[in-house]
Write a structure and sequence with these properties.
Blueprint lengths: L1 H26 L4 H23 L1
Amino acid sequence: MRADREVQLRKLKTVRGQIDGLIKMVEDDRYCLDISNQLMASISILKNINKDVLT
């Protein structure tokens, strides 16, 4: 179970980095499709984490 926890923490930290990047993208008024692509990547990782937690 410890290994699973470490994997999930690593994924969550990745998403945290992506969210920080998204904030900067919005502040810098980046192209909306670039922001959307980054959002979709974050959502995908979060869905994956949720699936792992529930199984």
